[in-house]
Predict the structure.
Amino acid sequence: MPTPEYIKDLRQDIGHKELFLPGVTAVVLRRSDDDGIPLRVPEVLLVKRSDNGQWSATSGILEPGEEPGVAASREVEEETRVVARPVRITGVSDHGPVTYPNADRCWFLDIAFEMEYLSGEPGIGDDESTEVSWFPTDALPHPFTEQHRERIEWALDAGAPARFVS
């Protein structure tokens, strides 16, 4: 789902003015192959964004009343056709300002999750991505969204407490 309806409704009233929005980043990891054999290097599910051509983890905006973990799972399934479940929150941070090609401005509070792959073959689920694929975490594609590189590192640090960027 590109832009939630409630955001479209707000935009009718405020135009392109900056919105502060809660968002999620879902770092889906696959640590074993289809036969359950551990991979030498974990793989991460990535999307190539249609708006800027960069590879990134799946991310999106929470719907009103939606739990963050539910939003992370929903975004993964909508964008990649993969089913994943949240394992833990890996960090909460200011994602910074974003200006979209249509001049809409947003500022995101990002809740990053480590997600466990459950099922599904990666595929493009909506118009937000042009490609979807698994990559070894030590061989990320280019160009890559730098903020998401950090979030992948957080997810790989299994069992670490959530980070709060200060």
